[in-house]
Design brief:
The complex is a heterodimer of chains A (about 55) and B (about 160). By secondary structure, chain A is mainly alpha-helical. Helix content of chain A is about 45%, strand content about 5%. Chain A is flat. In chain B, helix 1 crosses helix 3, helix 2 packs antiparallel against helix 5 and helix 5 runs antiparallel to helix 6. Chain B contains six helices and seven strands. The chains are: A mainly alpha (about 55), B alpha/beta (about 160).
């Protein structure tokens, strides 16, 4: 009978961390491809009852 | 939200009143390509009687008021207009940065509309966040350092 291999929690966490870092670097590279005065989508707006959104 | 219209306005108002201030903090980091967000835009300026008058004129042009939220502990001047969701923080001292002149000499001028804004270099922003060492500063340090690495790689 074939037993399905289950990745250990540590390896799952490591894989997620690696994927997260790759996505972050991709995002930075996309931003760096723009001129400085176009990297302007950073301002959050306050909600009157607390919290904020982009 | 796209800050470009606001930055164009700020650059025009600073030019109109000849206020020299250097953008710091997360807004400046975002302009350097860091994927971070912020509710306010921070600046460093020199606290002189002339500059305080210019700051008042800037606030007036932006239909905003000047608050000193941590008075008398800090030299922070907050320019706010709640209706427009505007908050600009002007600091006269910055942890990890020895002088305004040094910060200015390493800053970069960026065009917004017909005028320019001076943006602190990413190394200085990282230095000040590391020196301030609040939870929210530590939370973005890794992102800023990664951005600096990518900046260096792309300029090679």
């Amino acid at each position: 009978m074939n037993k399905k291999r289950v990745a250990s929690k540590e390896s799952q966490t490591a894989a997620l961390k690696k994927e997260n870092e790759r996505a972050l670097v991709d995002q930075i590279r996309r931003l760096l491809a723009l001129p400085m005065n176009k990297r302007t989508n950073f301002l959050r707006v306050r909600h009157p009852r607390g919290g904020s959104h982009l | 939200m796209n800050a470009e219209p606001l930055l164009n306005k700020i650059a025009a108002v600073f030019a109109e009143h000849r206020l020299e201030a250097i953008m710091i903090g997360n807004a400046a980091a975002a302009l350097h390509g860091a994927p971070v967000t912020t509710l306010d835009i921070d600046f460093m300026f020199r606290k002189t009687p002339a500059n305080l008058n210019k700051l008042k004129a800037v606030a007036k042009s932006l239909d905003a008021s000047i608050l000193k939220p941590y008075y008398p502990v800090s030299d922070l001047f907050r320019v706010v207009n709640d209706e427009k969701g505007l908050q600009l923080d002007f600091m006269t001292k910055l942890h990890g940065i020895r002088s305004f002149e040094g910060l200015r000499s390493r800053s970069e001028a960026v065009q917004f509309g017909e005028h320019q804004l001076k943006i602190a270099c990413l190394e200085d922003i990282i230095k000040s966040k590391r020196a301030t060492n609040r939870d929210r500063d530590r939370a973005v340090l890794e992102i800023l350092e990664k951005t600096l690495d990518e900046q260096k790689k792309s300029s090679k």
